[in-house]
Design goal:
This protein has helices spanning about 5-20, 25-65. The chain is an all-alpha fold and about 60 residues long.
């Protein structure tokens, strides 16, 4: 495989970066808010699931006493 010299590589990188469709500021803000909202929703779900499971384990282990 032929090696590309650094100058050619940088030209190729610039060409590829020019092809990228960058998100608008609004798209970035909306996406960030959605990620934060979904993270909070997931955290609350796992908090509730953990609490329910801990209550079940306590109930099961408490029956043997």
């Amino acid at each position: 495989m032929a090696r590309t010299n650094p100058f050619e590589f940088l030209q190729q990188v610039r060409t590829e970066v020019a092809k990228v469709t960058w998100p608008t500021r609004r798209e970035t803000v909306v996406t960030t808010i959605m990620v934060l909202a979904m993270s909070v929703a997931a955290a609350l779900f796992f908090l509730a699931a953990d609490w329910v499971l801990s209550q079940l384990v306590t109930l099961v282990l408490g029956l043997g006493r």
